[in-house]
């Protein structure tokens, strides 16, 4: 059966409404300056939020500025961010990005992105080694409030099960396909709520469909689903 774009948009809107009702209306707030958001997102690769936030805090405490990080030996950066995992790889990448920004702009800052068109800013960020569509989208959305949807493993899994995107698309192409279904003002809350839902209810191994407010709109559930138990503390269950 061919599902047309209009049906998918309507489903995405219904899913957004249900998530808003479940988790609350969410207004965008800045998560800090764009270079900090970029470094934090790079640190978050292949580790938990808790570990990456700790590594980021350690980095900011140890070095007084991004220039100081850029000028530090990679081994010192790696020792500082050890709690975030893959410290040697991440330290080298972060330092290379800082150096690249400095060489291109004469400053170790990405504040100029606030005045750059979204597509141009996205391309600029993705030019850095180790920065893909998800990392670029995180910087643009969390720091600058641009309607660019980051698709992480939770957003991808839940969206695929709902039938909003085909699995064969892969995470990279899913960014544009999924974002195209959402009005700009909906992108931020959709992202945050889908991650929360993916962690608490639509979990990777056995989704807790019996506790899910999205099941009436879910292809996976209609195809048989998984009537797992409600997670502890799930509202209304
Ligand atoms: S009904 Fe089940 S598979 Fe569908 S979104 Fe909810 S938890 Fe995930």
CATH topology of the largest domain: Endonuclease III, domain 1
CATH top level class name of the largest domain? Mainly Alpha
Structure class: mainly alpha
Q: Uncertain runs with pLDDT below 50, 5 residues or more?
A: 229-237
Largest sheet: none
Average residue-wise pLDDT: 91
Distinct small-molecule ligands in the complex:
iron/sulfur cluster
* Number of helices, where a helix is a run of at least 4 consecutive DSSP H or I residues: 12
What fraction of residues sit in β-strands? under 5%
The CATH homologous superfamily of the largest domain corresponds to Hypothetical protein, domain 2
Order of helices and strands: HHHHHHHHHHHH
Q: How many beta strands in the DSSP annotation?
A: 0
């Amino acid at each position: 059966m061919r599902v047309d774009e209009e049906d998918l948009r309507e489903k995405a809107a219904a899913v957004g409404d249900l998530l808003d009702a479940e988790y609350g209306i969410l207004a965008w707030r800045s998560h800090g300056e764009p270079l900090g958001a970029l470094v934090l997102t790079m640190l978050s690769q292949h580790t938990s939020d808790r570990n990456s936030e700790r590594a980021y805090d350690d980095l900011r405490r140890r070095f007084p500025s991004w220039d100081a990080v850029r000028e530090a030996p990679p081994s010192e950066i790696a020792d500082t961010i050890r709690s975030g995992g893959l410290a040697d790889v991440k330290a080298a990448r972060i330092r290379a990005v800082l150096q690249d920004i400095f060489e291109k702009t004469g400053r170790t800052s990405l504040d100029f992105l606030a005045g750059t068109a979204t597509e141009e800013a996205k391309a600029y960020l993705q030019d850095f080694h180790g920065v893909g569509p998800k990392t670029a989208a995180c910087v643009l959305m969390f720091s600058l409030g641009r309607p660019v949807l980051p698709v992480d493993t939770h957003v991808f899994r839940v969206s695929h099960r709902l039938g909003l995107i085909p699995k064969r698309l892969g995470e990279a192409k899913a960014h544009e396909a999924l974002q195209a279904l959402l009005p700009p003002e909906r992108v931020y809350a959709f992202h945050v709520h889908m991650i929360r839902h993916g962690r608490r209810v639509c979990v990777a191994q056995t989704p807790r469909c019996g506790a899910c407010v999205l099941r009436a709109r879910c292809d996976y559930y209609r195809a048989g689903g998984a009537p797992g138990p409600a997670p502890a503390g799930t509202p209304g269950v």
